[in-house]
Amino acid sequence: MKQLLNFIPLVFFFVFLTMYDVFVGVQALMIAATVCFLLILILYRKVDKVELISYLMIMVFGGFTLYMRDPNIIKWKVTIINFLFAMALLVSQFIFKKNLLQKMLGKEIQLDINIWNKLNLLWVFFFILCGTFSLGATYYTTDNFFWIFKVFILPGASLLLSLISGIYIYKNMNKDTDNK
Which InterPro entries match (predicted)? Predict the structure, then answer.
Protein backbone atom coordinates (compact mmCIF):
# COMPACT_ATOMS: atom_id res chain seq x y z
CA MET A 1 0.00 0.00 0.00
CA LYS A 2 2.80 2.38 0.95
CA GLN A 3 4.65 1.72 -2.32
CA LEU A 4 1.46 2.42 -4.27
CA LEU A 5 1.05 5.74 -2.48
CA ASN A 6 4.62 6.65 -3.41
CA PHE A 7 3.96 5.78 -7.07
CA ILE A 8 0.72 7.80 -7.44
CA PRO A 9 2.41 11.24 -7.74
CA LEU A 10 4.46 9.92 -10.67
CA VAL A 11 1.27 8.85 -12.44
CA PHE A 12 -0.29 12.28 -11.89
CA PHE A 13 2.87 13.92 -13.17
CA PHE A 14 2.90 11.86 -16.36
CA VAL A 15 -0.81 12.35 -17.06
CA PHE A 16 -0.63 16.14 -16.64
CA LEU A 17 2.68 16.31 -18.51
CA THR A 18 1.07 14.47 -21.44
CA MET A 19 -2.12 16.52 -21.37
CA TYR A 20 -0.52 19.94 -20.86
CA ASP A 21 3.20 20.53 -20.33
CA VAL A 22 6.04 19.87 -17.90
CA PHE A 23 5.14 22.81 -15.66
CA VAL A 24 1.54 21.67 -15.14
CA GLY A 25 2.94 18.16 -14.63
CA VAL A 26 5.30 19.44 -11.92
CA GLN A 27 2.41 21.22 -10.19
CA ALA A 28 0.39 17.99 -10.26
CA LEU A 29 3.42 16.08 -8.96
CA MET A 30 3.87 18.48 -6.05
CA ILE A 31 0.18 18.40 -5.10
CA ALA A 32 -0.10 14.60 -5.41
CA ALA A 33 3.17 14.10 -3.49
CA THR A 34 1.88 16.31 -0.66
CA VAL A 35 -1.44 14.45 -0.47
CA CYS A 36 0.31 11.06 -0.50
CA PHE A 37 2.88 12.21 2.05
CA LEU A 38 0.08 13.33 4.39
CA LEU A 39 -1.81 10.07 3.83
CA ILE A 40 1.28 8.05 4.73
CA LEU A 41 1.73 10.19 7.83
CA ILE A 42 -1.91 9.70 8.86
CA LEU A 43 -2.16 5.98 8.01
CA TYR A 44 1.23 4.85 9.29
CA ARG A 45 1.96 7.62 11.84
CA LYS A 46 5.53 7.52 10.61
CA VAL A 47 7.47 8.59 7.52
CA ASP A 48 10.68 6.83 6.51
CA LYS A 49 13.77 8.96 5.91
CA VAL A 50 13.83 7.94 2.24
CA GLU A 51 10.22 9.06 1.80
CA LEU A 52 10.90 12.35 3.57
CA ILE A 53 13.99 13.06 1.46
CA SER A 54 12.15 12.16 -1.73
CA TYR A 55 9.21 14.40 -0.80
CA LEU A 56 11.46 17.32 0.09
CA MET A 57 13.37 16.94 -3.17
CA ILE A 58 10.11 16.98 -5.13
CA MET A 59 9.11 20.19 -3.39
CA VAL A 60 12.52 21.89 -3.74
CA PHE A 61 13.25 20.85 -7.32
CA GLY A 62 9.61 21.28 -8.33
CA GLY A 63 9.53 24.75 -6.79
CA PHE A 64 12.74 25.79 -8.54
CA THR A 65 11.49 24.31 -11.83
CA LEU A 66 8.32 26.40 -11.62
CA TYR A 67 10.12 29.52 -10.44
CA MET A 68 12.90 29.37 -13.05
CA ARG A 69 10.65 27.92 -15.80
CA ASP A 70 13.41 25.41 -16.60
CA PRO A 71 12.38 21.72 -17.00
CA ASN A 72 15.99 20.54 -16.58
CA ILE A 73 15.80 21.38 -12.87
CA ILE A 74 13.15 18.73 -12.15
CA LYS A 75 15.13 16.28 -14.28
CA TRP A 76 18.10 16.74 -11.96
CA LYS A 77 16.03 15.41 -9.05
CA VAL A 78 16.15 11.91 -10.52
CA THR A 79 19.91 12.06 -10.98
CA ILE A 80 20.64 13.47 -7.53
CA ILE A 81 18.36 11.00 -5.72
CA ASN A 82 20.08 8.06 -7.40
CA PHE A 83 23.54 9.36 -6.55
CA LEU A 84 22.46 10.16 -2.96
CA PHE A 85 21.11 6.63 -2.49
CA ALA A 86 24.35 5.15 -3.86
CA MET A 87 26.43 7.39 -1.60
CA ALA A 88 24.33 6.58 1.49
CA LEU A 89 24.71 2.83 0.90
CA LEU A 90 28.47 3.15 0.29
CA VAL A 91 29.16 5.44 3.24
CA SER A 92 27.12 3.35 5.62
CA GLN A 93 28.89 0.14 4.58
CA PHE A 94 32.48 1.34 4.34
CA ILE A 95 32.72 4.25 6.77
CA PHE A 96 30.12 3.47 9.44
CA LYS A 97 30.45 -0.31 9.00
CA LYS A 98 26.66 -0.67 8.91
CA ASN A 99 24.73 -2.11 6.02
CA LEU A 100 21.57 -0.07 5.39
CA LEU A 101 19.85 -2.89 3.53
CA GLN A 102 20.48 -5.20 6.46
CA LYS A 103 19.23 -2.53 8.83
CA MET A 104 16.01 -2.13 6.82
CA LEU A 105 15.35 -5.82 6.16
CA GLY A 106 17.42 -7.61 8.79
CA LYS A 107 14.60 -7.94 11.32
CA GLU A 108 12.65 -10.19 8.96
CA ILE A 109 15.55 -11.74 7.02
CA GLN A 110 18.61 -13.40 8.51
CA LEU A 111 21.59 -13.54 6.15
CA ASP A 112 25.35 -13.69 6.45
CA ILE A 113 26.96 -10.21 6.44
CA ASN A 114 28.87 -11.09 3.25
CA ILE A 115 25.55 -11.67 1.46
CA TRP A 116 24.20 -8.35 2.76
CA ASN A 117 27.36 -6.56 1.60
CA LYS A 118 27.17 -8.06 -1.91
CA LEU A 119 23.52 -7.09 -2.13
CA ASN A 120 24.34 -3.59 -0.90
CA LEU A 121 27.04 -3.18 -3.55
CA LEU A 122 24.67 -4.42 -6.24
CA TRP A 123 22.23 -1.66 -5.30
CA VAL A 124 25.06 0.91 -5.16
CA PHE A 125 26.03 -0.06 -8.70
CA PHE A 126 22.39 0.11 -9.78
CA PHE A 127 21.88 3.61 -8.34
CA ILE A 128 25.10 4.89 -9.91
CA LEU A 129 24.06 3.41 -13.25
CA CYS A 130 20.58 4.96 -12.99
CA GLY A 131 22.02 8.33 -12.02
CA THR A 132 24.49 8.23 -14.90
CA PHE A 133 21.83 7.25 -17.44
CA SER A 134 19.52 9.90 -16.02
CA LEU A 135 22.21 12.54 -16.43
CA GLY A 136 22.80 11.46 -20.02
CA ALA A 137 19.08 11.38 -20.75
CA THR A 138 18.69 14.89 -19.33
CA TYR A 139 21.10 16.44 -21.80
CA TYR A 140 21.40 14.05 -24.75
CA THR A 141 17.86 12.83 -25.45
CA THR A 142 14.52 14.43 -26.21
CA ASP A 143 12.22 15.53 -23.41
CA ASN A 144 9.72 12.85 -24.45
CA PHE A 145 12.31 10.10 -24.10
CA PHE A 146 13.45 11.44 -20.74
CA TRP A 147 9.92 11.36 -19.30
CA ILE A 148 9.37 7.82 -20.59
CA PHE A 149 12.73 6.87 -19.09
CA LYS A 150 11.82 8.49 -15.75
CA VAL A 151 8.25 7.23 -15.50
CA PHE A 152 8.53 3.74 -17.00
CA ILE A 153 12.10 2.54 -17.50
CA LEU A 154 13.58 3.50 -14.10
CA PRO A 155 10.68 2.08 -12.05
CA GLY A 156 10.71 -1.04 -14.24
CA ALA A 157 14.45 -1.47 -13.68
CA SER A 158 13.96 -0.96 -9.92
CA LEU A 159 11.22 -3.57 -9.88
CA LEU A 160 13.39 -6.00 -11.81
CA LEU A 161 16.33 -5.52 -9.44
CA SER A 162 13.98 -5.92 -6.46
CA LEU A 163 12.82 -9.25 -7.87
CA ILE A 164 16.41 -10.33 -8.54
CA SER A 165 17.37 -9.27 -5.00
CA GLY A 166 14.43 -11.22 -3.59
CA ILE A 167 15.51 -14.36 -5.45
CA TYR A 168 19.12 -13.87 -4.29
CA ILE A 169 17.98 -13.41 -0.70
CA TYR A 170 15.71 -16.46 -0.86
CA LYS A 171 18.47 -18.60 -2.36
CA ASN A 172 20.89 -17.58 0.37
CA MET A 173 18.35 -17.94 3.19
CA ASN A 174 17.88 -21.57 2.19
CA LYS A 175 21.65 -22.13 2.17
CA ASP A 176 21.90 -20.55 5.61
CA THR A 177 19.21 -22.82 7.05
CA ASP A 178 20.62 -25.88 5.25
CA ASN A 179 24.01 -25.32 6.91
CA LYS A 180 22.50 -25.30 10.42
Answer: YciB
